[in-house]
What does this fold into?
Amino acid sequence: MISPSVRDRFLLDPSVTFLNHGSFGACPRVVFDDYQRWQLELERQPVEFLGRRAPELMANVREALGAYLGAPADSLSLVMNATWGINLIIRSLDLEPGDEVLTTNHEYGANTMAWDWLLGKSGATLVRHPIDLPVESHDDVVESLWTAVSERTKAIFISHITSPTALIMPVEEICRRARENGILTIVDGAHVPGHLPLDLSTLGADIYAGNLHKWFCAPKGAAFLYVRPEEQGWVESLIISWGWGASGELSPSTFVQRNEWQGTRDIAPFLAIPAAIAFQQELGWAENQARGHALASLARRQIAELTNLPQICPDSCAWFGQMTTFPVGVDDPLALKTRLYDDFRVELPHVTWNGGSYLRASFNAYNDEADIDRLVDGLRQCGVGEPRQ
It folds into this structure.
């Protein structure tokens, strides 16, 4: 059982079995207190805070975050969320009719919607390559994806950890091969910071967007966009504000300048990022990540015994971390998810993907085996695993 003192360090409703850290995260009390401290400091002297102190404060955060991610501070822009960062990149790309962006059928729906909408304006095309389940080998995934690469492929967009299927994709090998072929790589790392060890200096991605409000445990509204120095010149901004002309002219300005000042906004979520790093260090985050994976592995084994359904990937930390997606074999996964919450106070998302019905469970520092028991008992009482008449 997890120590009550660890569970109490989060602000979550104790009446809910919370197995959905992957959607919006959960902020620890100490990080939330730091966030509110910065908000109060801003309101005491807004002009002093935003007009004179903000640039140095934000630079200090980017230095701390860069050390955590293995990235230069001036290659990081602090943005509201990973979707914001991906939209920024899509809008900045200079694509022509006939150009292609290659992706998979495991991507986050809001991002594929943005690609479809914005590429359609340029006449370029988003190519969704299917990666069928179950998956067995990372090499097979890479080779399968590469069958869809053509002379028209200008960029590859792929999730590091997929949202619907919670799979860890072989992004390092994909980035390496793309670099050899002159193809830009754009990685959606929304679920990765704080979930998996991440070193952007060795990963090889040209562009990487990551959320900090999820597994990193920062406040809502904290995320980053990483762009390799060689690619920063063409990256614009979603908002044209004073940062665009930071040098006194309409251009040039740096990648950070163009994107850091977005008009008046609350920068407190960004300023609480060092507190989230300190919380991880205090708690022993690598041990927590291993423990979360062990819980995810135990949950999927117990649910597989209940449903007698084949799982979507091997039982290995190479394929999933603290979050796992498992088939439930029901006609209406939304109804199942709703009943789990309404009747049993178990919170986790449903997934309808490629014709199958799934649930996705996340495990973090505040979870333990008792949470798995409540989930499995709830599934059993909802009739999951019973033979159909």
